[in-house]
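Purpose: get a first structural picture of the assembly so the mutagenesis plan has something to point at.
Setup: three entries, given in the order below. No constraints added.
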Amino acid sequence: MEEKVDTDSPQAFMEELEKLQERLPQHIDANPQNVEKGLAKLVLTLIELIRQLLEKQAMKRMEAGSLSDDQIENLGMTLMKLEDKMKELQAIFGLEDKDLNINLGPLGDLL
Amino acid sequence: MTALYATYCIIDSDGRVPEGITGLHGGVVWNLPYRGIGVVVSLLAGPVQDIVAGAVQHEAVVEQLMWTHTVLPMRFPTVFVSQEAILGMMSQRYDGFRENLGRLCHQVEFGIRVLWPVANCPAAQFRVQVPHESSGKQYMRERYRQYQCRQVLSEQADQFGRKLDAVLSEFVTAKRLRKTGAGAFAFDGVYLVDWDKGAAFRRAFAEARSCEPDFEYLLSGPWPPYSFVAG
Amino acid sequence: MDSAVATEKDVTLLEVLDRVLDKGVVVAGDLVISVADVDLIYVGLRVLLSSVETMERLRGSPLADVWNESTL
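Result (structure tokens, whole complex):
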């Protein structure tokens, strides 16, 4: 195939493009265990979405300076614990960060 | 075993395609005509074991045709068990194919991807360690620093996107920008360009890129118009 | 991943795959695996291509009517 790509950073783009490929389904497996995994994936993706939305709200309030010291401390602890819990659940179901996403077709990915 | 037919693309002709084009498993490729247009197919001797090799062979067939015909590239793999089934599909999709062939006449696709210059974020300089800070506050401070960083880069990327648009628009028939969000791509777009304007498009991009040397760039193409087939 | 540094040729392959596997005209082949998600139908075709045994097995299944119609 003739030269079709022009870039100074093939290595960097290679890594990102490989991540895009990982999203494509590799095979169908009707194994009941994997049906469970599919549910876990859905639930955890939604929890991650909510966590991100919460964090975004917290950041906007930091920006606006509308949080008291105590509120910053409490929000920080809560978000931190939520992050730890997510990692725990991901480990239990064998789901990595790249697995946590839902493709909405023409709308792109949820996360 | 039933024969299988691999399909490569829809073309704007019901005539023969050039001799000697081979596709998957070395099968000879031919044009199956239908009401003035055609679908390019080949007989598949057996199952496709290697998806990557097959994808490359599929693309090679489409690219051999793209300069002499208007092509609607098909997703790989798209396989049928009979010619009747293929023609049934053509009947169903005829109007849409006609519309696409008209719209994509003489057009090719280019892709532009840009990576964040992560190391250059100014907010990275503001990593502060506050002694005796409680863990909740520490967590928030670090998240906030990353947030500010992303805001700065996001604004830079938007500005860059607008500049690119301005510079490229006279050569572009259509474009699709992929939502980039917090991912590694600061910009990810595909452009539909008339093949006569391909060289001018490339020159314009090279110029825009030299004005923003901090970002990392990738220009790809010309491709068959995969991203612009509608419906 | 390869420890060797990536080249433009490697990136070209990924750009090809990104288009050929994920974009372009989508038509349902003969064998319609009835799940709502288009991606799964597409993946179903990929499964079909990689396993002749799957084809033979499906001849005896409820999908056989679809199969028999399309092989006339």
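The domain at 107-228 of chain B is CATH 3.30.70.260 (Alpha-Beta Plaits).
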